[in-house]
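Students often ask what a holo structure prediction actually looks like on paper. The answer is less mysterious than it sounds. You provide the chain, you provide the ligand, and the output is a string of discrete structure tokens encoding the 3D arrangement of the protein together with heme C.
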Amino acid sequence: MHISGSARRWMRAALSAAAVVTLAFAAAPSRAHGAPKTPPRVLKMAVGVCGVCHGVTGNSINPMFPRLAAQHADYLEHELKAFRAHTRADPYAVAYMWGIAGGLSNASIDALAKYFAAQAAGPGLPHAAAWVARGNAIYHDGIPAQGVPACAACHGPQGLGSAAFPRLAGQHAEYLLKQLQSFHSKMRKTPIMDGIASSLHRREMRAVADYLASLP
Ligand code: HEC
Ligand code: HEC
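The corresponding structure tokens follow.
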């Protein structure tokens, strides 16, 4: 597995602080009932590598790193393959995830996706009420005058997603905003979201991101 310079620098700083927590969790990772057993080699990677940035149970603290807990396994797998194939290409994806995903086999990707999908989601993160209210309206009704569809139609009424659409509830607002901008600029190329994001103004992106982050 190749890890780029910026990823390595971050990990060096974080590892010393995280080591104690990591070891404690490695012994007993929280796992939803009936979830598949993670092979030991993959568990070690999930906790000791991915966990440094994304949190051992996928509930990252730093908004630069998306939360992976309770995300759908199919989506996680799809994104790891997109990093590996270099089709998801915003600067953070390039700096942090290309090297890491480049060395992963399909079997490891599958097991890592299942590990994080099986972790319990953390609580929502509070945001200013005015932005949350505006975001709530956009999320559920869209913005018909700008041709923006209701996000809920695909991502679900509570932002929980489905096998085909990612969960957005409880994700860091800064991360969501950055992704909407990456769709807009086509650094992250997807047929559906690029069009939707290009019809949103920055303030609308921020509102909907704040709303989603505040959901449990
Ligand atoms: C050095 C820090 C770092 C490490 C280690 C790391 N990641 Fe990431 N990861 C990131 C960053 C930063 C992003 C956000 C990229 C972006 O903004 O597009 C990300 C994004 C992701 C995403 C996309 C999530 C989404 O909601 O679309 C997945 C999936 C992911 N990482 C899985 C993993 C797995 C699995 C591992 C371990 C094999 C791992 N990451 C290790 C920093 C890291
Ligand atoms: C027609 C279905 C559809 C609608 C409507 C839709 N999305 Fe999406 N969205 C998707 C799909 C599919 C993806 C996964 C893209 C990929 O393959 O990376 C996605 C991904 C995302 C992501 C990236 C999540 C992550 O973890 O990186 C965000 C953020 C997002 N959508 C926000 C929105 C918002 C906000 C709206 C409403 C303004 C919206 N979406 C409406 C289908 C949809």
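The chain has two domains: 5-117, 129-214.
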